[in-house]
Protein: Down syndrome cell adhesion molecule homolog isoform X1
Organism: Pipra filicauda
Amino acid sequence: MWMLAVALLHSISHVFSEELHASLYFVNASLQEVVFASTTGTLVPCPAAGIPPVTLRWYLATGEEIYDVPGIRHVHPNGTLQIFPFPPSSFNNLIHDNTYYCTAENPSGKIRSQDVHIKAVLREPYTVRVEDQKAMRGNVAVFKCIIPSSVEAYITVVSWEKDTVSLVSGKLLRFSFPAGTGRDVSG
């Protein structure tokens, strides 16, 4: 009976010792969005660790495990996902504007990160312009700032100018242009 108790205690302590030495966890799981310039590329870590060491993998939100695309996308042995710099003509939604997640796995189990949206911003020239308006003398004309859709999420109109002089926002402004110029506007 005494031998049975010792054997039982030994096996229980062995199980607890394995549980204490096996772990799996995310170090920092707060990353939810990565926005990067197409000219620089980006590195996105999979911040998981564990004992014994973990195997890290990246997936698309659809559950499809991603694969290396030489010179475009690569998963490093340490689990870091790299998206390489690329010209605007090589933009691919599947790679450059998609939702990913990583997993960490070891004998303790498998854990999944939160979704991380990765979005490339194309670095290409753009022009912001004022939309032409027509109004009869004495009426109101509303001017709109036209921003290309590819960059409008990243642009904020902070002021309006007339002949390089800033106009005060929130005030009713009145402009008079010489007759015959086609710019007879009051506001």
Notes: Residues 49 and 125 are 42 Å apart (CA to CA). The two ends are 100 Å apart (CA to CA). Residues 1-18, 182-187 have pLDDT under 50 and may be disordered.
